[in-house]
Write a structure and sequence with these properties.
The protein is mainly α. Helix content is about 50%, strand content about 5%. It contains 17 helices and five strands. The chain has helices at about 1-10, 25-35, 75-85, 95-110, 130-135, 165-170, 170-180, 190-200, 210-220, 225-230, 245-255, 260-270, 290-300, 305-320, 330-345, 350-355, 360-380; strands at about 15-20, 45-50, 150, 155-160, 160. It has a three-stranded antiparallel beta sheet with strand order 3-4-5. β4 (about 155-160) and β5 form a beta hairpin. α14 (about 305-320) runs antiparallel to α15 (about 330-345). The longest helix has 23 residues, at about 360-380. The termini are far apart.
Length: about 400
């Protein structure tokens, strides 16, 4: 390694040379000869490691390269002695090496060989994020905020209620839905009513548009999710999506003080359909049993039913014009749901309005009817039904060119 020392000797920026040798070899002696010959004139602070070798009874190899003295001249003790005699600055032990470097440096500063320059300002290094977060100095802004579920602890929690408590308290599907949708533990009759909605909306036969789409998609060989989505995409103002509008129309009319007759007349004059009124075959004389079940439950368990009562009065007006203009299952669910959330004591008036604006009622229909759609999908596979093609005799073909 003499070549490196000669390079630093020629480098005007290098004022002190540092040599760290080891047991074995004679490279250090090459540097000694260079110093004696005047090729190296700069001060050298040096130490050769391995001085402890003499304390072992047998030869010892040092370091990953297996350094070993092959004669007295190659021992660390002999090299340190030779370097010191040649004028190298050699400390008495390795732990004194920093002090020796500082001593030589200070001497060169005093002699003017080294001219100290002010150090540049320490750059502002940002605090390590992981360390700072651990100390509570910073927090990472969240990409999502969730207030309904937490899976970080020992147990999954729904709105703060552990999954074991969900079962020990027998909350049921209605109770879980209340936690995840409304962030409330509702009274038992409320969760029972939610489950009733899911049951009565689960299916309405294979002929309705949603079930029809699901069946056609299943028979086309598509997967369950595709068939379910096909059915769900038909839900809207003409099929199943009337619950939110019915709730809004009846509650607004009642809250603004309109009489049932005035409400019907207003809707007629503005050419608007009354959502939740009308059935294809059912009437007062032939009631829809789903409506009967829901009405009776609400009357029996709810604290009050002013919106249901108003809707039933509207039904008395509309059925005088046509027998089948009854309060249908969509309308009954809608008005009873309004009465439930308003009278159960769990929500303020503002929260009730907010929940309705979120589309919760249509959400209940979607959730309930998904049960039936999946049932139709499975049924078609079970029956091994082939690809569906609509019959020609059920299509009216119009071939005339438009004028």
């Amino acid at each position: 390694f003499l070549d490196h020392f000669l390079r630093y000797q020629d480098d005007s920026g290098a004022k002190i040379l540092l040599l760290l040798g080891e047991v074995g070899g004679i490279d250090e002696y090459d540097v000694i000869e260079a110093v004696k010959a005047g090729k190296i004139t700069k001060p050298i602070v040096a130490w050769c490691i391995g001085t402890c070798a003499s304390y072992f009874a047998t030869e010892v190899q040092f370091g990953h390269a297996g350094a070993q003295a092959r004669g007295d001249m190659e021992t660390a003790k002999a090299k340190n002695k030779a370097m010191k005699e040649a004028g190298f600055h050699v400390p008495d032990s390795f732990d004194k090496l920093p002090e020796m470097i500082a001593q030589v440096y200070t001497q060169l500063v005093e002699e003017g060989v080294i001219v100290e320059t002010p150090e540049a300002p320490t750059p502002n290094v940002p605090v390590d994020y992981t360390w700072a977060k651990k100390l509570g100095m910073v927090r990472k802004p969240a990409n999502f905020i969730s207030s309904i579920a937490d899976d970080r602890g020992e147990e999954l929690k729904y709105c703060g209620v552990s999954i074991s408590d969900v079962f020990s308290q027998n909350l049921g599907v209605g109770g879980v839905l209340a936690l995840l949708w409304f962030r409330r533990q509702l009274p038992d009759y409320c969760t029972k009513f939610i489950e009733m909605i899911l049951m009565v909306t689960a299916d309405h036969g294979p002929a309705v548009s949603g079930a029809h789409n699901t069946i056609v998609t299943a028979r086309a060989g598509k997967d369950l999710i595709s068939a379910l989505c096909s059915g769900l995409l038909t839900i809207g103002p003409r099929f199943g999506g009337a619950l939110d509008d019915a709730a809004r129309q009846f509650s607004d009319a009642h809250d603004t003080g309109l009489s049932p007759r005035d409400f019907v007349e207003k809707m007629k004059k503005t050419n608007q359909l009354i959502m939740g009124i009308g059935h294809r075959i059912k009437s007062l004389a032939n009631p829809d049993q789903r409506v009967v079940i829901i009405k009776e439950f609400a009357k029996q368990h709810f604290q009050s039913t002013p919106i249901l009562d108003f809707a039933l009065e509207v039904e008395q007006v509309t059925t005088r014009k046509r027998a089948n203009l009854i309060l249908n299952v969509d309308g009954c669910i809608a008005v009873c749901f309004i009465d439930m959330i308003r009278s159960c004591g769990a929500f303020s008036q503002e929260e009730c309005e907010e929940l309705m604006s979120f589309g919760c009622l249509n959400g209940l229909f979607v959730l309930g009817r998904s049960i039936g759609f999946i049932g139709h999908y499975i049924d078609q596979l079970r029956l091994k039904q082939p690809l569906y093609r609509h019959p020609w005799d059920d299509i009216t073909y119009i071939q005339d060119v438009a004028a």
